[in-house]
Amino acid sequence: MVSNNISTKKRIDWVDMAKGYGTIAVIFAHLAVGKIGVWLYTFHVPLFFFLSGYVFNDSLKFNDFISKKGKGILIPYFTLGLPMLVFTFLQQYRGSWLTRESILTLLKEFIIQKRFWTLWFIACLFFVNIFFFFICKFIKSDLLKIALSFVLVCVGIYYYRCGGQPLPWNIDVCFTATVFFCGGYLLKKHSKYFDYIKDKRAFAVLLFILLGIANVIFGYLTHKISGNGMEMFDSTYGFPPFTFISAFAGIFAVIIFSTFFTLKPIKYIGENSLFYYAWHQTILIPITNKIFINFGLFNTVEHLSASYYVIRATQTVLIIVITTIITLVINKTKLKILFGKK
Predict the structure, then answer these.
(1) Given this model, what pLDDT does residue 99 score?
(2) How far is residue 119's CA from residue 127's CA, in Å, rounded to a whole number?
(3) Lower Cβ count inside 10 Å, N or C end of the chain?
(4) Mean pLDDT confidence for 142-171
């Protein structure tokens, strides 16, 4: 879900691997997979904000920065959204409830963008980049950047606790997302520490295990204490201290795991993550659900049984295969520019 507008020569394998794993996690979590989905929510969206911070470039002038983000985020927002609108209109037409009012409502929601479909993240990401651009321009101290990021988290959570509602283009999420974006930015800036961990394989494996355990424990505790956890779409953050510890632990666990080996299929998903992220829930999950229902697969298994998870995993693979075929076609045409690809 990180902008695809990165030159091939500058791509970082582990970043694409992490994006690939994160994309698969997002798709699988949207398939009603019970507690596994709850666990995946502890880190999967924060992971993408973190990785976006890692590839953030604070050396550009504002006009160049806006131009780059416009090409890499804004234009893909509309080009990715168009097929989603068409698919939804067709569904409404088949259901005989496509009206002038329903069309105008969808278009209005698409333009105003308040948690509208999976596109909400792309819209929010544009403004998180702008937020952090100005933070970097006016604040030079890394410690002050960290402090401000946590202040913004507190402001965001207080806003929700006071009954605050989603703002246009999900600007409200920027307050809680900036801390993850800042984390990625600082990891890149102080990459020597990360390089040390990568070079010490035994230590990296141990750290991965410990971080994974921490992610699960603190994710469990935040649900135990508050009844919910990290769900940026729904503006819920559970017991914030434990929620954010769990998120960062999960993020670093995924990142470390992503350095162990490079798998071309996973890397490809990461390189084209916007396609998979944008289209899987609105278009491909309904299509594959219908296929599986027509084959009677959901009728033969108990909900959340082992067989059920196998079916959902198979559905995830099918969604990935379909999207991969589409991306392979698009990436061979000049249309790829409209999707943030060079």
Answers:
(1) 86
(2) 13
(3) C
(4) 96
